[in-house]
């Protein structure tokens, strides 16, 4: 039996917890405070209550940790949970974005590409679809996959996870930006100027990826625009919901990461530079308010 902790009792963390509760392992859902949250998965007719404990309630080291807090909440997290780890603990960062590793200098840490869709409102989580994490393939993740084989969580292992991480970064880049800055859900894509802004952002993202060693086919831009067009009009993005909730934005790991890569390779990225400045100013207002 393994001891598993999930940090962040939100949409992603609660879903991971529910998938693991059916296994023989000891599972802790860890939040900033003790609480009870309700979890609903209408497609599977699941309604349950989850107990949330704090990291200081746990005195034994854990074998596996999933981190599912939003990017601005990583600050200070290392100190909060370091006592839960030992040399062999596998830490999975189940977040969007990239480049957050340095905030969590754990020995065996893996950036997951997270395909879990849900939303937390107050103390209630609704899960919409998917329970999939993509990870780099190695001995640790092969063994993790075996350990969690009886759970509802799908682990997909890749020879080069960077490609998956960058693909999700590009998918998040344009749609998160226009929904957050335009304060409208996916219907905003119907506006021709917004549509071309998305294409321009994706073109810049494609070039940044290329200079960073990730060679997508040029078709990736059309492919992502086609994905966007499949979104229901009323679908929001996490950054759109963060704007509505006046909470800090996850720009550091998405637009900010790409912006820093563009500077590193001295690339000209006028659309990214503009939207990054605007998002950053919004982020500062929300950070100062929170
Ligand atoms: P969320 O619903 O806001 O949940 C985050 C949770 O983390 C909140 O319950 C928050 O607690 C908790 N938290 C913050 N700081 C903490 C700390 N120091 N210790 C313990 N818990 C802490 O966020 P989410 O939607 O699950 O997103 C998590 C990550 O997954 C993000 O990077 C997001 O972009 C990514 N993602 C989300 C989705 C989705 O559909 N939701 C899909 C793919 C990827 P409080 O309640 O106290 O604030």
Furnish the topology, listing elements before pairings:
Layout: E1 3-7, H1 11-20, E2 26-31, E3 35-41, E4 46-54, E5 64-67, H2 77-81, E6 90-93, E7 108-111, E8 113-121, E9 124-136, H3 139-147, E10 154-158, H4 161-182, H5 192-211, H6 220-229, H7 238-244, H8 255-264, H9 270-289
Parallel strand pairs: 1-2, 1-5, 2-4, 3-9, 5-6, 6-7, 9-10
Antiparallel strand pairs: 3-4, 8-9
Helix pairs in contact: 4-5, 4-7, 5-6, 8-9
NADP nicotinamide-adenine-dinucleotide phosphate binds at residues 7-13, 30-32, 68-71, 73, 77, 80, 94-96, 114, 116-120, 238, 250.
Question: Could you write a compact summary of the structure shown?
Answer:
The protein has helices spanning 11-20, 77-81, 139-147, 161-182, 192-211, 220-229, 238-244, 255-264, 270-289; strands at residues 3-7, 26-31, 35-41, 46-54, 64-67, 90-93, 108-111, 113-121, 124-136, 154-158.
What does this structure look like?
- The protein is α/β, with parallel strands linked by helices and 290 residues long.
- The protein has helices at residues 11-20, 77-81, 139-147, 161-182, 192-211, 220-229, 238-244, 255-264, 270-289; strands at 3-7, 26-31, 35-41, 46-54, 64-67, 90-93, 108-111, 113-121, 124-136, 154-158.
- A hairpin with a 4-residue loop joins strand 3 and strand 4 (46-54).
- Helix 4 (161-182) runs parallel beside helix 7 (238-244).
- The chain is globular.
- The structure holds NADP nicotinamide-adenine-dinucleotide phosphate (NAP).
- Pathway: Cofactor biosynthesis; (R)-pantothenate biosynthesis; (R)-pantoate from 3-methyl-2-oxobutanoate: step 2/2.
- Residues 160-279 form the Ketopantoate reductase C-terminal domain.
- It catalyses: (R)-pantoate + NADP(+) = 2-dehydropantoate + NADPH + H(+); 6-phospho-D-gluconate + NADP(+) = D-ribulose 5-phosphate + CO2 + NADPH.
- Its EC number is 1.1.1.169.
- Belongs to the ketopantoate reductase family.
């Amino acid at each position: 039996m393994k001891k598993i902790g999930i940090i962040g009792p939100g949409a992603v963390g609660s879903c991971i917890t529910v998938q693991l509760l059916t296994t023989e392992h000891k599972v802790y859902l860890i939040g900033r405070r003790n609480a009870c949250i309700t979890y609903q998965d209408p497609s599977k007719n699941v309604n349950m209550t989850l107990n949330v404990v704090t990291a200081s309630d746990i005195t034994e080291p854990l074998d596996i940790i999933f981190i599912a807090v939003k990017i601005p909440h990583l600050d200070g997290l290392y100190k909060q949970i370091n006592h839960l780890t030992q040399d062999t603990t596998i830490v999975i960062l189940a977040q969007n974005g990239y480049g957050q590793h340095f905030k969590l200098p754990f020995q065996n840490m893996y950036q997951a590409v997270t395909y879990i869709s849900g939303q937390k409102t107050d103390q209630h989580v609704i899960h919409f679809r998917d329970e999939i994490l993509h990870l780099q393939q190695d001995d640790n993740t092969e063994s993790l996959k075996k350990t969690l084989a009886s759970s509802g969580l799908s682990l997909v292992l890749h020879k080069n996870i960077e490609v998956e991480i960058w693909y999700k970064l590009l998918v998040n880049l344009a749609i998160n930006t226009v929904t957050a800055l335009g304060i409208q859900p996916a219907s905003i894509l119907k506006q021709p100027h917004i549509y071309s802004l998305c294409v321009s952002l994706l073109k810049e993202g494609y070039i940044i990826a290329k200079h960073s060693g990730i060679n997508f086919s040029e078709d990736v831009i059309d492919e992502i625009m086609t994905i966007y067009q499949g979104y229901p009009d009323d679908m929001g993005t996490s950054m759109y919901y963060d704007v509505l909730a006046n909470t800090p934005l996850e720009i550091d790991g998405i637009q900010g990461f790409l912006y820093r890569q563009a500077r590193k390779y001295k690339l000209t990225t006028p659309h990214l530079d503009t939207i990054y400045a605007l998002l950053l100013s919004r982020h500062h207002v929300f950070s100062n308010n929170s």
